[in-house]
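Human: If only I could read backbone structure tokens as easily as an amino acid sequence. Underneath my words sits a plain record pairing an amino acid chain with its backbone structure tokens. Take your time, and here it is.
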Amino acid sequence: MRRRFRSRPGFALAVALAAIVIIGAIITGMFFSTTQEYRISRNSAMQARALTAAEYGMNSVMTAGQWVSTWNTAANGLLATKAYTPGDGGIDTVRVTKLNDSQFLITSTGRVGATTGAQARHRVGALVTLQIPQINMLGALTTRGSAKVGGSSFLNGNDSAIANWNCPPTGAAMPGLAIPDTSKITHAGCGGLSCIEGTPQVINSPAASKDSTYFNYGPGLDWTALTGAATKTYSSGSTLNGLGPTAIAGSCNTADGNNWGDPLHTNPALASCQTYFPIIYSQGDLHISGGTGQGILLVEGDLTVTGGMSFYGPVIVKGSLSSAGTGGHFYGGVMAANVDLEQNSLLGNGVVQYSGCAITRALAGVATPIFAVGRSWAELY
């Protein structure tokens, strides 16, 4: 008997369509998955580039060439916004905000990507402190040699504010003179050492005989490091006359060898010189006659001052200090190491007036930024 087969039209077509649908779904899923992986990889790469840009800007603004030392003495608040380009098409914006006299907040925002396509942004922040030289002033005048005072000269260890500087309240008084051996003090026309004031008037200090008092200024900072960072250097035997601030194109002319800033704050046109505190280094003996200046004065040899010259900030002299005639007027403090144990002579109208404000501002003006100890860096969103 012959077996009959019943026809089932359209079955193969249905199977083929189902297979096509299944294969299409698989392909679509693979395409979607591949696209997502691509986008995730692209976004991860762009986020990494944005982070790199943010860190690039953060590190750039911390370098000596980009950090503006006048920020150190400026008022609290937002100081600057700077833009940097890492070189890979990204851009970074850095904001520097002063929190107080020794702390700054830096926020850095890195951006990458075209304006009409995919973009990425990463923001980081860091707390920065200032590495400020620490100078161990023992009195208005500190010396390890002999000292001669007289005439109308005056050593005053009572803390003094500086006019027009917006100084904080004055601190405790210092000795007028710190010396390791008070028998080495001679005076003329200064009976009972009446030309010296302070608390105490004179102190017999063993620290005044130590090299570290004169030449060490904190971790990693000594005489060599500080003189190496000098912004103005003069050869041995130089004579400077009539120091004073100058401006060029509306900005402080720091290239002028006779411009040591504007401590008097009397000329609005020279306002940019008010926050200019140079490190001044003489490679040997230095003679100054007349004028005004501020900053940190470092003298490898002897310092002779005449003509009523006035200086605001710490002065450290490896040799001896000599002031005669109308003499020099120092506001801050003077340290004379007397390497060869010469005699310091403060005669005429010479004045050394201790001022914590003048010392602090001058030291802050040359301070360098470092990341705060501990968790100074953080990601911001």
User: Anything to note?
Assistant: The mean pLDDT is 88. The chain has two domains: 16-133+368-381, 141-365.
